[in-house]
Amino acid sequence: MRLKPVSLLLALCCLFNQAQAASAPVPYALPDTEVRDIRAQALQRDYQLFVALPDSYREGARRYPVVFVVDADYSFAVVRNLAQRLARHAGMEEVIVVGLSYAKGDGGVYSRRRDYTPTTPRKHDYRSDMPGRQPAFGEAPAYAKFISGEVFPLIASQYRANMGRKIFVGHSYGSLLGLQIMLTEPRTFEHYILGSPSLWYDAGVMFDREQAYASSHKDLPASVFFGIGGLERLPAGKKRSRSEEDADMVADLKEFNQKLTSHKFAGLSTRVRVFDDEDHASVFPLVLTHGLRAYLKSK
């Protein structure tokens, strides 16, 4: 049977579309990774957990330290790949990596400002990256409870995780969240890797939090690795202040660590590393690598 011109054209279009579909590129997927949806009941928001399993996970029954990293939309692949490379080529312990995503439906800036900051800043001119919604702040205490109360039980029930060896990884605002946890419930994690903490936030509110903690505690059971880029300093000629525009983040971090160690808290161990020639955007992989080495064992 001969096809009519219109029928022939439709048949050719169908074949063309099939050929295109067959040759269309597919998304790249990281091996041995999983994505789990999770509802934050108290927050009434939905998140995702990105989970990466170590090479030897399928081979036995051992349990692994767990690295929990915030800002996962950016950081998860970095942490997963560096942790895997250190285990394969530098003899470091293998780990499970858990990335905590931004809230579903929220912009990344909106989500992290709200979930990672300890307070609503007393003065600010921030604009929202979500049209029709005012910027939100100060929900780090509630978000920390979500991590310990809902994320931890899920990971403990679904994976061979050594929940007695949990590592927190944060950078910038993410490090504010880490400090919020460390200065309220320090035993939430066994090791903290905190890069370039935004200690200028809300006129230096974390300095106040540290002083308040010291006034009522003699111990601070926490292992902490602080890292920052050497270029995160205030330009010459500018006067340092507790504001984002005039912050010297290197000086802030050194001052904060000095205050922490001056109290001689029982159980506290800190290290500070300044990475020359790195800035706020470039320093994270170095902070992560050295922070993992400060806690994980090598063969």
UniProtKB/TrEMBL annotation:
- Write one Gene Ontology MF term: hydrolase activity, acting on ester bonds
Give the signal peptide, or none.
1-21
Keyword annotations from UniProtKB, A to Z: Hydrolase, Signal
Q: Where are the transmembrane segments?
A: none
Could you name the domain of life of the organism this protein comes from? Answer: Bacteria
Gene3D superfamilies cross-referenced by the UniProt entry: alpha/beta hydrolase
UniProt family annotation: Belongs to the esterase D family.
From the Swiss-Prot or TrEMBL record, give the protein name: Alpha/beta hydrolase
